[in-house]
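Why do we bother with holo predictions? Because pocket geometry can differ from the apo form. Keep that in mind while you read this record for flavin-adenine dinucleotide.
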Amino acid sequence: MSPLHIKKGSTKHSAYNLRPTFSDVQETHTIAVLVDNEAGVLARVIGLFSGRGYNIDSLTVAEVDHEGHRSRITIVTTGTPQVIEQIKAQLGRIVPVHEVHDLTVEGPSVERELALLKVANQGEKRVEALRLADIFRANVVDSTLESFVFQITGTPDKIDAFADLMRPLGLVELARTGVAALSRGVGSTA
Amino acid sequence: MVVQALKDQGVDVVFGYPGGAVLPIYDEIFQQNDIRHILVRHEQGAVHAAEGYARATGKPGVVLVTSGPGATNAVTGLTDALMDSIPIVVLTGQVPTFMIGSDAFQEADTVGITRPCTKHNWLVKDTARLSGIIHEAFHVATSGRPGPVLIDIPKDVQFATDDYTPKTKATVSHYQPQLKGDMDTITELVEAIERAERPIFYTGGGVINSGPAASQLLRELVEATGFPITSTLMGLGAYPASGDKWLGMLGMHGLYEANLAMHDCDLMINVGARFDDRITGRIDAFSPKSKKAHIDIDPSSINKVIKTDMPIIGDVGHVLEDVLKVWKARGRKVNREGLAKWWARIEEWRAVDCLGFKPSPKTIKPQHALARLEALTKDRKDRFICTEVGQHQMWAAQYMGFEDPNHWMTSGGLGTMGYGFPASIGVQMGHPDALVINVAGEASWLMNMQEMGTAVQYRLPVKQFILNNERLGMVRQWQELLHGERYSHSWSEALPDFVKLAEAFGAKGILCTDPADLDDAIMEMVNHDGPVIFDCLVEKHENCFPMIPSGEPHNKMLLGEASTKDAIGSKGAVLV
Ligand SMILES: Cc1cc2nc3c(=O)[nH]c(=O)nc-3n(C[C@H](O)[C@H](O)[C@H](O)COP(=O)(O)OP(=O)(O)OC[C@H]3O[C@@H](n4cnc5c(N)ncnc54)[C@H](O)[C@@H]3O)c2cc1C
Ligand SMILES: Cc1ncc(C[n+]2csc(CCOP(=O)(O)OP(=O)(O)O)c2C)c(N)n1
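The structure, written out:
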């Protein structure tokens, strides 16, 4: 039951697992895509998702190899197993895409996201916000007498939980980076 | 530089239309004689012509058009080529780099507009990269699953000079699709071939894409195993229609025996076809009893629609070669007893004679016209048939026989009315002495009729065989079956006199209305040395059968004589 693993021009094996791909269960997967950092490549990836009606829960992108002009796009997406397989195969067809990795099935991985939260409050609420920030290991990166900006990193769940707690305490604005992810252990995905 | 790169790629013909943003390239073309430029009359025509040329020759078709409207006019052709996996390279002019984004005259975001309808596209901002990108573009268009690519070249980049990168020095792209199939799965397939009681080959455009050698291997495998074979619209000719294992086309308007065999088989071997919805009908009722093998070069085709038991990613030619090798090495076994029973059942289905029709002494039945065209031209090995889109297209697929690959060009995936005429021009450019016939409906044909000027200018003797029912026949048929015979806007009240139209362009026109004159008229068309418009007035209300109504399984097929009232349930009516 090997997961789909497209490495263009290199794999000898047909890469299809025979999981019950046509089930209706919705799964969330984190997919890492290594691409040439050329004009329009992000538009191709996003256009693929909108054109074929796939979901994007989160997307991050940045150049990770300045000399080789490679970017890493991390996409969190939700769909049936068949849709997830299609997404990976469709991503693999895009010419500037070098590798597609499904971190969710390729073994254990770590996922982190960074968020900035602006909380405006006074008195008791201010104290409570600080106390919770401490528990969540969030840092204060800006403060006035009536507000804080917290920086927090963690899994998307942790950020959700923190944001939920901050809401009654005066959450004004929330900015999230989206998920970055790597496989655990010595091996490299890319 | 552009012309040099094209020459390096072995290009000998370009279909194009000039404009301000491509004048430097046109100037280069003017000063050489190796590449022939064919001036079309509309950029859509250029792209379809290039598609026809590519399909008929196996070489990529090349198009050159200007920025803005030139590029947007090419969009339909690009989408058509993407859907049907046709390799073409389109060069578009663009406003100079320093004016991009300023809403300059005839500026359009060509790479943005064409991103979803090309396999890949490039905006070249640096002359030093131009020749390398052109070589890369040919590589991408022709390797793996073929498709259209586009290179957008700003005018200042065309004017500037820089070092030329020859084809041999161009950096090898990382884009190298896998050609060889997985041997374990191939062995699994061979085991299934040995055991199968009710096998069938379901072949498609991928066999044609893979090249003539793949068709040869397919023929060898079919003959050696004795398995029945059917094909999609796109794969006609890979196995000869005269072969005794041939069941005819399958699908919505496919043959009864082909569809029933697909429905009842126990082993389906899909060779380069993509389980299109014209084939599968209702997915949950599609061939319920079979194990399915799927050979396809594009991983995304596998499990896209139908779950496959034996997926083999690779090129048809390479995979079939391995299948044959393994099968022979294991002793060429098949289940003879099972096969004999299977063929006996197929013969029963064949006996239904689903393509039977009653010719009329008074009006020309479209089926009859095509049967006669077939009878009178089938001996010509150099006969190429193009079609437009509609009933006539399906009748051509049903009533004409294709003996060789690359002799049949039709718009399958996008179903583009207006494809056939320009495509026939492209085919004729690739095969100047061949008999090239475009089987057309009058409505489709009018969509790109301006290309008559091209045919006449370049003395391309293309034959436009128009089955004129004065109706948008296919639409009319659906309205009859699905919309209570309310014929909303499915006929034209002001059709031209096609004979006069031909004459106005300086070509020959032939009108045929009487079945008795048909043979002579067809021969007159075939023997005329020049382009012909053949206006064949046919029965106006003929329906195209067999037909699997939308949303129904294969074994719920409508045959000609059967009652067609209420054949399509309300759920099927929303499908197209
Ligand atoms: C009005 C109308 C009615 C139609 N009715 C029917 C009908 O009744 N029956 C019918 O069959 N069609 C019909 N069609 C056509 C239909 O819409 C599809 O275009 C057609 O069925 C698709 O053919 P295909 O599966 O062979 O795929 P293609 O579109 O030809 O795709 C080829 C497949 O092969 C793969 N491939 C490409 N190159 C290679 C290679 N070298 N090696 C391995 N694999 C490769 C590709 O990845 C792709 O999956 C109709 C069209 C119209 C307009
Ligand atoms: C560009 C385009 N527009 C609309 C359609 C929808 N359509 C499919 S078949 C058809 C009628 C074709 O009529 P005609 O060319 O006369 O052929 P017939 O069906 O009568 O043989 C139409 C309108 C299409 N396929 N392509």
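The mean pLDDT of chain A is 89.
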